Request: fold
Amino acid sequence: MRSGPLPRSSLRTFYRNCKPIEGSTVRMVQLLDEEIRSREVLEWTGLHLFHYPMSSCSQKLRIYLAMKAIAWTPHMVDLSRNESYGVWFMGVNPRGMVPTLVADGAVYVESNDILAELERRFPEPVLWPSDKADEIYTALADEDALHHDLRRLSFRFVHGRAGTTKTPELLATYRDQGSTTVGGKQDTSKRLEISFYENLAECGLGDEACRVSASRFRIAFDKHEETLGSAHYLFGQTVTVIDIAWFVYAHRLVLGGYPLERLHPRVDAWYRDLLADPVWLSEVEPTPIIARHVQSVRTRNELAGVDLVAMAGF
Ligand SMILES: N[C@@H](CCC(=O)N[C@@H](CS)C(=O)NCC(=O)O)C(=O)O
Reply:
């Protein structure tokens, strides 16, 4: 079973091929022309973002866009209906994931690469300081490496799912659709997605896997707790993309019952401070229907003694 973060080697494949952002030696994922099968997007002008309201990576992008007051056209991809695995969307992003950016006909995948591209196009206000460009890239890669952990905890403790919503047939279609290369390289990302969902079908959201995922976040938050002892934000005295990325994670985990205030009081104060900003809040706040569902999942788990705290032993 694969419960660990993505290996560094596969993360590195995300960063090959295209142009680096200023101050960074790291490269971004832009699709090559022949990898884009839904050809009409090549004609699109301006910025178009494929996203989903409750997708954590989409939330990260939307907060960033709002902070920079960048105008963009939304394209909702309904993940609850597996729309990202549809033929048309796979022809835009062969990884079948949101967020995906189309910028004047160029297609960018991977939320952190999209942030890099946007920072290059819209440098003000600075959210990715060029003197720390590579450090920030590495910190974002570390955050991305926890994405499957977040998804696992989210599925169980926020959405209250018991297993997978992807049938073997759907996964087979997903496997066969879209370009097999991304940015000119054979892509490993889809294989990791398939193995996540196959594992979910086979083993469900088991206690042990969830415990491992929760402890990875505890370790990461412990580091942030230390950082925030001498800095206002996670990368110094001003807000950066790292704050946005971790704010989204913190919010999702708090929704799932992670005891942020008790275990990491400085991180909790930092999180609450950012949450008080209506721009940040509005991008992560669940709709009333989802909020009620999340609350009922929490109550049900607590009554059964299988809530996140009990399960993780925190
Ligand atoms: N490493 C990717 C992760 C993207 C990702 O996993 N997106 C999720 C939503 S947060 C998705 O599209 N999932 C589709 C699915 O699981 O069906 C990124 O940072 O963009």
Notes: The chain has two domains: 17-125+167-204, 132-162+206-312. The two ends are 24 Å apart (CA to CA).
